Amino acid sequence: MSTVAVLLAILLIVAIIVCALLAYRLGQLRRMGTPVLLRELPAAEDEGWRHGTVHYSDDALRYFRLTALRPGPTRTLARQSIEITGRRRPFGTEADILEGMIIIELAPGADAEGRAFEVAMAPGAVTAFQSWLESRQSNRSQRRRSA
């Protein structure tokens, strides 16, 4: 076999492995999380929306972008730092992709870099998200540590 044929065979094997990993990740994320669309603000009127899933834990909301190959979450939002500043229905061309969803506006500071986000969810997912937020421990109820 020539070196070109060997190189092509190696490239084909690598491509198959990457596709298999992507299919596995996509299957895992769709099965385990809540489907959402997320975008970082500021953004143009109908741009920046990314499909993904969110996973809730005791201290954070972890967003996994569907098209990313990274093994961990794409964004992590600290539960104590998430503040809802508003909600709205999709308008303009957003309605084509976000039909039937509710958009929740999050105040800056939920992630480590202090960015603001919008999250589009189905109405049932919004209820679950708000319940998860409301059930967090109050900052005032935490014990103060003595020095």
Describe the protein in words:
By secondary structure, the protein is of the alpha+beta class. It has 3 helices and 7 strands; from the N terminus they run αβββββαββα. The N and C termini lie far apart (72 Å). The chain has a 7-stranded antiparallel β-sheet with strand order 4-3-2-1-7-6-5, with helices on both faces. The mean pLDDT is 85. The chain has helices spanning 3-32, 94-97, 123-134; strands spanning 34-41, 50-56, 60-65, 75-78, 84-88, 102-106, 116-121.
Reading side by side through the largest sheet, how are the strands ordered?
A: 4-3-2-1-7-6-5
Structural class: alpha+beta
What percent of residues are in strands?
25-35%
The proportion of residues forming helix, as a percent range, comes to 25-40%
- Tell me about the biggest sheet? 7 strands, antiparallel
What's the count of strands? Answer: 7
Overall pLDDT: 85
| Computed Rg | 20 Å
Instruction: Based on Cα principal axes, name the global outline.
Output: elongated
Low-pLDDT residue spans: none
Count of separate DSSP helical elements? 3
Query: How do the helices and strands follow one another from N- to C-terminus?
Result: HEEEEEHEEH
- The N- to C-terminal Cα distance equals 72 Å
